[in-house]
Amino acid sequence: MFDRYQAGEQAVLVHIDFPDENAREDLQEFEMLVSSAGVNALTVVTGKRSSPHPKFFVGSGKAEEIAEAVKLFDANVILVNHSLSPSQEKNIEALCKCRVIDRTTLILDIFAQRARTHEGKLQVELAQLKHISSRLIRGWTHLERQKGGIGLRGPGETQLETDRRLLRERMVNIRKRLEKVEKQRQQGRRARNRAEIPTVSLVGYTNAGKSTLFNTITQASVYAADQLFATLDPTLRRIQVEDVGPVILADTVGFIRHLPHDLVAAFKATLTETREAELLLHVIDISDPRRTENIEQVQEVLDEIEAGEVTQLLICNKIDNLDDVSPRIDRDDSGMPIRVWLSARTGQGIDLLYQALTERIDRQVVKHTLKIPPNASKLRAQLYQLNCIDKENYDEQGNCLLSIKLPTKDWYQFLKQDQSTIEGFIES
Question: In its keyword annotation, does this UniProt entry include Protein biosynthesis (predicted)?
Answer without folding.
Answer: no
